[in-house]
Amino acid sequence: xxxxxxxxxxxxxxxxxxxxxxxxxxxxxxxxxxxxxxxxxxxxxxxxxxxxxxxxxxxxxxxxxxxxxxxxxxxxxxxxxxxxxxxxxxxxxxxxxxxxxxxxxxxxxxxxxxxxxxxxxxxxxx
Length: 126
What we know:
By secondary structure, the chain is mainly alpha-helical. The chain has helices at 17-28, 37-50, 61-72, 92-96, 115-125, and strands at 79-83, 100-104.
C-alpha cells in the first residue's frame, strides 16, 4: 500500500471541535437523516442569508447538482457543458436527466472552463 506521504491530496477532511460536537450529537440523538433541528436551522439560516422563502438541505453535492439540473430544465438529448477538472458527480446528474455532458478543457492558470474550448465545443454542436 502506498504511503500517504507520497499522495497529493486534493482536499483533506478537517473536523474541529464544533463539527465533532454536532456529529456526536446527531449520532447520540439518532438524527442521522434529512430531518432534525440542525437541518432545520441550516435551512433557516440559508433563507435568512439569501432572502429566499425556502431552502432544502441535501445529503451531498451530487444531490444538489441533480436538483439544479432538474430546475434548469435539462431534457433528454440536451447538451450540458461540464468542466473536465471535476469528479464524475458533476456529469452524472446531467445523465440522470437524459442530457449529454460535454466536457470542456480547463485553463491551466485558473482551472476554470477554457472559453476558447467552450466556444469550439458550442460551434461543433450547432
